[in-house]
Design goal:
The chain has helices spanning 3-25, 32-56, 63-84, 87-106, 116-139, 145-163, 173-201. By secondary structure, the chain is an all-alpha fold. It has one domain. It starts with a helix and ends in an 8-residue tail after the last helix.
């Protein structure tokens, strides 16, 4: 990773932390969906800081990807469950969590490498929730539409990146680094859209439905 993209990665993490603080500032007067998304931002901030810390210490941090995947699936499923109000979201996400649990029990070595199946399935499921929410927003004004755009765009890119995670030795090094750099760019866009959402719709601290 070049210094430029490494700096972009740090910038994205800084914006993520700022977003968590901004949403936390508005936490008390907002909806349950808002509060769940705030918890998601806080959890992602801690996860990112943990990954950076392990890099600084020279320790492997791939296992954090497993933690990241589970937290993201749980919190974004709860988030979209509130927005869409469909029990099927909890059923599908619960089934996937059960599948992932069995995976890790049967093959603990997955903690030391990218679990591309679990990551791809969990992100594909959340992308599906995004599509349903886009469809709902056509006929009615809905909150978090900017965030939904960010989640959708980022996870499509991220799914392709992590799906190739275990194939990095079959890809050329330049191709794999390009994929990682693209992931950083889309993550930065994602965090920027979250900040835009807060400034546009929640800065005034008015109650969110």
């Amino acid at each position: 990773m070049t210094r430029f993209f490494k700096n972009l990665s740090y910038l994205a993490t800084i914006i993520l932390i700022i977003n968590a603080l901004l949403f936390l500032k508005s936490f008390a007067k907002q909806s349950k969906a808002f509060k769940i998304f705030t918890l998601y931002l806080i959890a992602m901030s801690l996860t990112q800081l943990g990954m950076i810390l392990f890099v600084i210490l020279g320790k492997p941090n791939i296992f954090i990807a497993s933690i990241y995947t589970v937290i993201q699936l749980v919190l974004l499923s709860l988030f979209y469950g509130e927005l869409i109000s469909k029990k099927i979201i909890y059923i599908l996400s619960g089934a996937l969590l059960a599948f992932m649990t069995v995976q890790y029990i049967l093959d603990p070595s997955l903690f030391s490498r990218y679990n591309s199946i679990a990551i791809s399935l969990s992100q594909a499921l959340i992308i599906g929730y995004c599509v349903v929410y886009f469809y709902r927003s056509i006929s009615a004004k809905t909150p978090f539409i900017i965030v939904n755009v960010g989640v959708f765009v980022y996870l499509i890119c991220s799914t392709l990146i992590f799906a190739s995670g275990n194939l990095q030795y079959e890809l050329s090094q330049d191709s794999y680094i390009l994929l990682l750099n693209l992931n950083i760019v889309f993550y930065l866009i994602f965090q920027t859209l979250i900040m835009v959402e807060w400034f546009q719709n929640y800065r005034s601290l008015k109650h969110s439905a």
